[in-house]
């Protein structure tokens, strides 16, 4: 019977084309508006590194002075000092660990048509690539020996490599960064983590573009590379680059990768013991709680998804509800003109349940039509949103999950809208309808 009722529903779309088109369009607009905003929220709040997000931890410590200290929920700084970052890098904790900071270099392209370029990059330690699953088109990450020596090596993004060398493999060639020759050891393939949790502080943002190059953290320090990003200094520091390294300024972002999420307590214990040792050396006098955040907790702490994003989704669903109210009115009008048909079917022996099934399946057909049109409108809306900014271009993309959600939402909306009109249709009294004919 389902197939028969479904075909009846398809045919009923042609009975009153204007009314049907208005229902489908009303439903489609409501679905498109809600799905578009929900898609953006879905991408923004998604897990950027599935399978590892509960095993990667970001430590925070409070290194501020004791004078004027008032405890608060955000005592600990979101970044580490150079001193603490280097100490943690030398520790035996985790299967991988990396410290990093952003930097901007002047690149001599060696081509008259390009001249001098300003490129945005990152200075991490070697474990960064394996920890975050960075794919390579050519070559590989620099070696552990390069990390130790602070060798002048560089990994390029695919976009920068193609800009400088076209499709050729540039591994082994040299480019000048800040006037110093660096050997290219690898070229990253197209890769974009969304949200980009490892660069939320002082960088291009959670949805910014991929870094154009990466050099070893030790190399950037040896070459006294400038820092591009956020820095917090709780006390005066000595002048010069060495003064920065010896200071209590926080500017290094740090990440541990553990074998399992269950090792969190052991890592917390290590961080607490480390802080206690530092207090004996005259540092971290506040004795504030040290904290560890896994990836999803870190995104929450940094408020990647703000209240305004959630409000937009609620408003969009409010608009969908308004569309449903209008669809209910249109379905009532559509079904009311078929009272005679229902009366005859009831007189011939059709039960109210069968009438209910027929009309509910017909509303489902309207929902399917609205879903198809709503999907097209949603794709158009997302395409328009992508033109507004680079950040929105990153998140305004529909995946298979949201594709299925579009049809599911459309069918659910149509069925909900059809419950009252269908129930009203089932209440038709056969005798009254037959007498009126």
UniProtKB/TrEMBL annotation:
It is a multi-pass membrane protein. One of its GO terms (molecular function) is transmembrane transporter activity. Keywords: Cell membrane, Membrane, Transmembrane, Transmembrane helix. It is found in: Cell membrane. The chain crosses the membrane at residues 311-337, 358-385, 400-420. Residues 315-429 form the ABC3 transporter permease C-terminal domain. Residues 20-224 form the MacB-like periplasmic core domain. One of its GO terms (cellular component) is plasma membrane. Pfam families: FtsX, MacB_PCD. The keyword RNA-binding does not apply. PANTHER family: ABC-TYPE MACROLIDE FAMILY EXPORT SYSTEM PERMEASE COMPONENT 2, MEMBRANE COMPONENT OF TRANSPORTER-RELATED. This is ABC transporter permease. It comes from Massilia glaciei. The lineage of its organism: Bacteria, Pseudomonadati, Pseudomonadota, Betaproteobacteria, Burkholderiales.
